[in-house]
Amino acid sequence: MKNKSNFLVLSTFFGGLLFNYLFWTERLALNLLIYSLYILTITYFNKDITKSYKFKIYATAHLLAAILVVINNSDLTIVTYYISLILFVGFSHYPQIRTVFTAVIATALQFITLPFNFIQSLATVSIGKFNLKPILKFAKYVFIPIIIVTFFTVIYMVANEVFAHYVDTFVLNISNFLGNIFSFFFKDITLVRFLHFCLGAIVTGGLVFTFFNHNLEKAESKCTEKLDRIRKDPNRHTIWREMIQIFSPNLLTKKLALKTEYITGIISFVALNLLLLSVNLIDITTLWLGYKPSGNFSADLHQGTNALIFSIIMAMAVILYFFRGNLNFYSKSKTLKVLAFAWMIQNFILIISVFIRDGYYIEYQGLTHKRIGVLVFAILCIIGLTTVYIKVAKQKTLFYLFKINGHIWFALLLVFSTINWDVLIAKYNINHTSSSGIDLDYLFSLSDKTLPILDKNRSNLYATSIPDLKSPKAVLLTQNDKFQRRLDRRIGYFAERYQKTTWLSWNYRDWQTHQYLIKNRLQP
C-alpha cells in the first residue's frame, strides 16, 4: 500500500513538472504526445489497473489520437485527443464499465474526488520513519470549510459590487505578497509558473489516481441489452398510478392499457407513414429529378436540411417511445413493427434527400466545415436508424443503443480526425470554381495549413459579388489585388510565428508549410 502510494504521489509530482515544461507558452502539438506517453506508462505500471482488453483498445486509440494531433494538428484532432484521454481513463480505471457515456462520468468523478484520494494517499506515504499523517489529519478539518467559504464568497461578490471590490483588493495584495516572497526564494521561477506546475500536478493526479468506489459500475451492471417483459405488481402504489386512477382508471388494467397503446401506435404510424410518403414523393419529383436552383436557394436548402435532420431525430424518438417496454411482447405487435419498419425505410429516403440537398449546396456554394458536418450528421442518422431497427427487431433495450452508438461515434471521430479537412476544403473550392466564384473570406478563415495551396493558386483566385441566380451574367469576376497582399501578410505572420516556436510545438503540417515557404523563398 505504501509503495503504491509513493509511486502515485511521485508520479503526480513529476507529472506536474513535465506538464509545466511541455505546455508553458507552447502550442498543442508534439508535447501532447509526450505527455500521453507518460500517462500511459504510469497507468500501465499501476498494479491496481487491470490490463484488460478494453485497456489495450482505448490506450491504442488514445495514442493514435495523440499522433494525429502531431500529424494534422486541427481543432478536431485536439477534441478527439481529449475525448480519447477521458475514455481511456474511464475504461482503464473502471474495467466493468460498458458504455462511453458512463466512462466519461467515471472520469469526471475521479477528478472531483481527487483532493480526497490524494490526501488519503499522502497519509500512507513514508520516508523512513517520517510520514505526513499527523499533518494531514489537521488539514482535513479545514479543507471542506475552505471550499464552502470560497463558494459563498464568489456568490456574495456577484451580489454586491462593493464587497467584490474589497475581495479583489484583498486577493491582489495577497497575490503580490506571495509573489514577492516566491521571487525572493526562487528568482528564476515566477508565481504564475509555479501555479502552472500546480495545475499540471492536479491534471496528472486526476488521470492516475483511481476513485475506488464501484457504485457506478454496479449501477451500470444492472442494465441489460435484452428487453425483458415487466410483470407489474397490481398492489404497488405510486404517484403515477394514483394520477391514472383519477383521470383514467380503466388504464390500470394491464391488457387494456397495452391494447390502447397498441391502437395508438397503429394510428400514429399509419398517419406518419402517409405524411412522410407525401414529403418523399415531393422530394423525389422536385429534388432528385432535375433540380434547378432559383431565387434564394441557399437559404431554402439550409432551412430544409435542418428541418429534415430534426425530423429524423424525432422519428427515432417516437419509435423508441412505442417500443420501450411490454409492447414488444404483445401478440399483435407484428403489424405495428411492420409500420415502424416502413417508417424507418422512408426516413432512410429522407436522409438521401439530405445528402442531395447538401450536394447541391456544395456544388453551387462550395465546401465548408458546416456542410461537411451535415454529411457527417446524416451518416450518424443512418447508423442511428440502423441500430434502432436492430433494437426493435431483436427486442433490445435503450442501454444497447447507448452502448453501440457510443462506440461507433468514437470510432468515427478517430477516422474523421485522420483527414486534413482545411486542405481538402481549400483544394475543392479552388478546383471547382462555379459561376458564383470563391468565397475568399472563408478561405482566409482556414488554418495556416492551406497557405501552400493558396499561394500555388494565386492566379486562379478572384473576388466576386454576391451571386444572383436569376441573372447569372450579372456576376462579375475581377482579379483581387487586395487578396494578394493579405496572403503575403499571412505568410509573413506564419514565418515569424514558426521561428519563435520550439520543438515541443512541432507538428507535421506546420513543418510542411514551412518547408514549402523555404523552397519557394516566400519568407520575408
Number of domains in the coordinates?
3
Number of helices: 21
Q: Report the biggest beta sheet as strand number plus sense, adding barrel if it closes.
A: 2 strands, antiparallel
Specify the overall morphology: globular
What share of residues are in beta strands?
A: under 5%
Structural class: mainly alpha
What percent of the residues sit in helical stretches (DSSP H or I)?
Answer: over 70%
**Rg computed from alpha carbons, rounded to a whole number of angstroms:** 30 Å
**Arithmetic mean pLDDT:** 80
Transmembrane segments: 7-23, 29-46, 101-118, 138-159, 192-212, 262-291, 303-323, 335-356, 372-392, 404-426
Keywords: Membrane, Transmembrane, Transmembrane helix
Organism: Pedobacter hiemivivus
Pfam families: DUF4153 (PF13687)
Chart the SSEs and their pairings.
Layout: H1 2-23, H2 30-45, H3 53-71, H4 75-93, H5 100-112, H6 114-122, E1 126-127, E2 130-131, H7 133-159, H8 161-185, H9 191-208, H10 215-221, H11 239-247, H12 254-288, H13 297-322, H14 333-365, H15 369-393, H16 398-417, H17 421-431, H18 440-445, H19 451-456, E3 462-464, E4 477-479, H20 481-500, H21 508-520
Antiparallel strand pairs: 1-2, 3-4
Helix pairs in contact: 1-2, 1-9, 2-3, 3-4, 4-5, 4-16, 5-9, 7-8, 12-14, 13-14, 13-15, 14-15, 15-16
